[in-house]
Amino acid sequence: MMSILNVLLLGLLLLQVFLPATAIYENQAGLFDWHHTWVGHPREAVKINDNHIAVYSERNILASLNIETGAVEWRQVLDNELDHFAATEAGILTISSNPERAQFWNNTDGQLIWEHSPSQNEVYGNAKPIVWHNGDTAIFVDRTKLVRFSKNGEEIWTWTREANEDQVFERLRAFERGDLIYVVVEPNDENKSPYFLVNTIYATTGETSSSFKIPCGANYEDVTYTGDYLLWTEEDILKWTPITKKDITSVSIKSLVKSLPTADKFIPSKISLFGGNNAELASFILSAEFEDAEETLYSASVLVNIQEKTLNLDKYYGEQTAYGGADFYKKSAVRAVKSAPQELAVQIAPDGKELKIKHDFSLSGEINYVKLIDVEPFRLFVVTDGSSVYLYNESSIVWSREESLSGIAASEFLDLPEQKMWTQMTDELDETAAEQAAESPISRYIRRLTTHTLELRRLPSWIVSHFVGMSSSTLKDSNNKVSNLEAQSCWLNETEPEVLYRDNFGLRKLLISVTKSGKIIAQDTSRNGKIVWSRYVEAFSFTQLHVVRAAAVKLPPIIVAVGNTYDEVGGQAVGFVRLNALTGENYITAIPEIADFFEPVVATNIGIDKVMRLPIEDPDERTHILAIYESGSGRVYIYPDTLGSQNKFVTEFLPTFYFSNQNADGSMQGFKVVEGYRGSLKAEPVWKFNMPEDEKTIALSHKQPNEKVASLGRALGNRNVLYKYLNPHMFALVTKNAEKKLIKIRIMDSVKGSILYETIHENVDAEYNDVHIIQSENWFVYHFWSNDAKAKGYQTAVLELFEGGYENERVESTNFSSFDNIEPHVLSSAFSFPYPITTMGVTITRNGISTKDILFGLPTHQIMGVNKRLLDPRRPREKPSKEDQEEQLFPYSPIPDEKRLFLTYDLDVAGVKSIITSPSLLESTALVFAYGIDSFFTRSSPSKQFDVLSEDFSKVQLLLTITGLVVGILVSGPMVRRKRVNALWK
């Protein structure tokens, strides 16, 4: 017992000595990293006081935004689906589902005041709740009851509607008017009723005052509420009645709009009503959609006022290609619409005021939602289809937020070009062959010499900048930092774009992201993630991003974004968008012969299952070729499909082109691409792994892109070597058996489909705890929950593959081939892990010399970095031997719950779903970017910064020392020579 305790104590001691700490000093926070807090695409916004608005979003986030700056004052990331919310100055009520929950929040700091869940087998109704100014609330329960709660969450009264055996009622709506509550019971759309039922309830007691029926045979979408009125359409008739009494009035739509220029467009099947629950304004918008001769969709709308028994047309908004948005606030109605490609028109009634505000819709998409925050001073909250959020005053943008970055689908780091490329100073590459032949070598030499001489003008400023920066950190960003609010603002394309260059250490890169809302965005990593450019592609939802050409001399980097879209007839399609990565502009080739193959935006309706970037380039534009696999026909296409690309693909890559794909049923299949009829490409099945009926795939690993392996073996303490099994085609398939509560990890070869290794973990809960896996070099790390009695809790296991089980044993072959019958030797171990996780990543350095950190995204909104040395299957379980100590192996122990391992220190990085890394020019440093709801960027040095001077190093003192030595040599040199000469004369 004492020996085991001694081993554990020794292990803890060694951990403290050798544990790579990612902790930072307080003054370093935010110096090299940045964190962007997002709330998601807002679905609704409400002004809660003079300084704040509350929003809830599609990401199930409730947040408070500062009206003047757009800063997130507080937010709550809910773990269930947010369905409704209502807010006043007393607090904010949210209704959510899965599971059902009602929560009341303090609107000042976002703290939870009370929470309520319905009884078993009950659900909350699908109607908006009521919140009184004193903090009381009223919530529908089970579509049959209305329950009033006090500001402390105590139940005051419950109203239950009377059962109706003849009709099935689906929805209830409530309107608070003074001391009364009007509950409108709507019938189920599939069980149409000839009437609506209106119940009048006393707000203080919950007792029914009266009830009456309103004859109405309309569908849900034909009914709306505005002020104290209920409106609906029945064929070509518009009807309305006060909700306080049964008093139906009707008018023909044709007669109502007969004075409008587009009266013939208001066809009953194409019209819609939009109203507001504001009791102070009894107005609504009547709109109609129609197409012109070229099948372009238009919208015509008019503001209508209700004056008891009559309807008056107030404001005709005309025809627009998009409806825009509208809102009612107190006694004002506002309509925001796209009046020009770069102009937003805001019309305010009854004032008759019309505002023209500059807004580039090509960068944001059409208007999706508007909310009039205030009339005096004017503040309008606007959300677009691209998930960009703006707050406008009467003439310009007050602030904006690029909330599309809360829905990133894929991201890539992009290396910037060097500034001192001499070929960027001349135009030699742009010369034709005739111009090159006409210029003599002497004139060319003189031109180059002149160019470099002119560059000497920068020498004084270079010297001054280096001397001024002597006291600063070597790795400190030279560019001016921008504030978080500025970095999170939407790109407006109002200034001349900055020419971006790589810094000395390759720490400055572009971060390219594609979003689910159809945006492509580039951020500068060295300027707090400030947006450099952005593009909105209409009707796209992006899923993948490929860098097909890196920055090169005279050749800008190119990216291809892949996403789901629609074809010309509205069918599902997959689209490809090709852009210049430095500017965000469409990339158009300068070679006329291949212009048709390099269209900036291409869409196809073939069923694409997989897009692969190949390691070969087309000979014309030097871009990586993309291979596209369609499982339905088994066809493979290449993009771009130029003649040069086809020839290079067939001659250089086709003979060795194997790939694997996971089918819809979970089975894995391997293919070899062969040339078919008339040069077509066909995916020929090579192998298939059919999943057992009781198993289901839950995770799949992939090789890290751009990864370099520094050594082929692992040096042991006795100077022998274990050679790594470096198979570029291996991957791990993780499956679960829910009935037997086990998971299987299979390491497979994608070329021939063989199982290289298989292991089973029993007593694993994979139903409620996700399993994650990552691979790098010759090892795999995965995380799971174990219900094993001896080791219950979260576990992180490692599999490390070697060519042989004996020291110095390796395969006798100069080239690796998957067809060789080689079985790797696998070392494995499992470690207790302190947290659940949401995703995994691994650091990548320039040459792969530094040790690696495995990065874990935690549901507690943190990112934890664990050095690979802690996840070493060779860690001894007994007292370490001298050889173990020589190899710096410390005793087996659980992964420590050490806050110093958090890359995010005390930041709240919500919803991390993916972590990507990229090497810098420093071998010690990797760049890390995590995204999900929030975005977080930092630098990681798993082996510490061994290749740069520390911040404590005094460069001024070094310079003074060198200067003193030079002066000493200059002074003492003549004296020594004189002394020697005098000595010779003696």
Secondary-structure blueprint:
Elements: H1 2-18, E1 34-36, E2 42-47, E3 52-57, E4 61-66, E5 72-77, E6 81-88, E7 91-97, E8 101-105, E9 112-116, E10 130-131, E11 137-141, E12 145-149, E13 155-160, E14 169-177, E15 180-187, E16 195-202, E17 208-215, E18 223-226, E19 229-234, E20 237-242, E21 249-252, H2 253-256, E22 271-275, E23 283-291, E24 297-307, E25 310-320, E26 325-329, E27 332-340, E28 343-349, E29 353-358, H3 361-364, E30 367-374, E31 379-384, E32 388-392, E33 397-402, E34 408-415, H4 433-438, H5 441-455, H6 459-468, H7 484-487, E35 509-515, E36 519-524, E37 530-536, E38 541-549, E39 558-566, E40 572-580, E41 601-604, E42 610-617, E43 624-630, E44 635-639, H8 643-653, E45 658-662, E46 668-675, E47 681-689, E48 696-700, E49 713-715, E50 721-723, E51 730-737, E52 742-749, E53 755-762, E54 772-776, E55 779-786, E56 793-802, E57 825-832, E58 839-842, E59 853-858, E60 862-867, H9 882-886, E61 914-919, E62 926-931, E63 935-940, H10 955-985
Antiparallel strand pairs: 1-63, 2-3, 3-4, 4-5, 6-7, 7-8, 8-9, 10-11, 11-12, 12-13, 14-15, 15-16, 16-17, 18-19, 19-20, 20-21, 22-23, 23-24, 24-25, 26-27, 27-28, 28-29, 30-31, 31-32, 32-33, 34-35, 35-36, 36-37, 38-39, 39-40, 40-41, 42-43, 43-44, 44-47, 45-46, 46-47, 48-51, 49-50, 51-52, 52-53, ...
Protein name: ER membrane protein complex subunit 1
Keywords: Endoplasmic reticulum, Glycoprotein, Membrane, Signal, Transmembrane, Transmembrane helix
Main location: endoplasmic reticulum
